[in-house]
Amino acid sequence: MDQGKGDMAVSKFFKEFLLRAFSAILMVAIVVILWNLGSVSREVMSLTIFSLLFLEWIFLFRNIDRSNLFLFIIGSFYILLAGIGFWDMLHHDSFHLLIPSLMLVLWTVDSGAYLVGSFLKGPKLAPSISSGKTWSGFFGGILLGHIVGYIFIFSSPLFENHKDLAFIVTFFVPFLGQLGDLLESKVKRMLSVKDSSTLIPGHGGFLDRLDSALIIFFIWEIYIISKYCGIPMLIG
What we know:
By secondary structure, the protein is mainly alpha-helical. It has one domain (2-228). Helix content is 73%, strand content 3%. It contains seven helices and two strands; from the N terminus they run ααααββααα. The chain has helices spanning 2-35, 39-60, 66-90, 99-120, 135-152, 163-191, 206-228; strands at 124-126, 130-134. The protein has a two-stranded antiparallel ribbon. The radius of gyration is 19 Å and the shape is globular. The model has no long low-confidence stretch (mean pLDDT 85).
């Protein structure tokens, strides 16, 4: 009986993995093609994705009551500011070159955490927030994210003369990505939902796929605002 249950669990894992892998490959292929078609294609794609993402957020609160109103307002501000941050980075003279590398690192962290956590399992990272996340997945995703980050961010022309800054960005991005993932998991736990939508087979919705990126672009926009306000920041 136990052997049968174990075989079923393994079979379910590989089915889910194959669905996630196929969906991810297709999604990345579409994004890469549209990204390389030019600036107009990148802008249309970005606006479409963030519009769908925000609609997912609104849909999560379709039965909103007073107890969730503050969360909806704060979350809406967070998503909107992150979207503006992405748009600002997309049109920055230099930092737009960093977006593909950032996304690659974040997706590596997410995929690495899923794979390592699924195989090694172990103690739960934050059972009150997400029952599926483990410490092994957390550190596995961070490690893989650092490796990919050092390869792609350090080789970016943007950081050719700023290796110290490249190190800081590469070191913190995987940790921030995990934090963004936990934030969304906490919100979903509060709303008693598993995924933000079913638009991406095997992954949920755009909010589920980009939760780790939102915090990066949110912080970027805070930097932009601080810069215009004359507050000294690390990046000149």
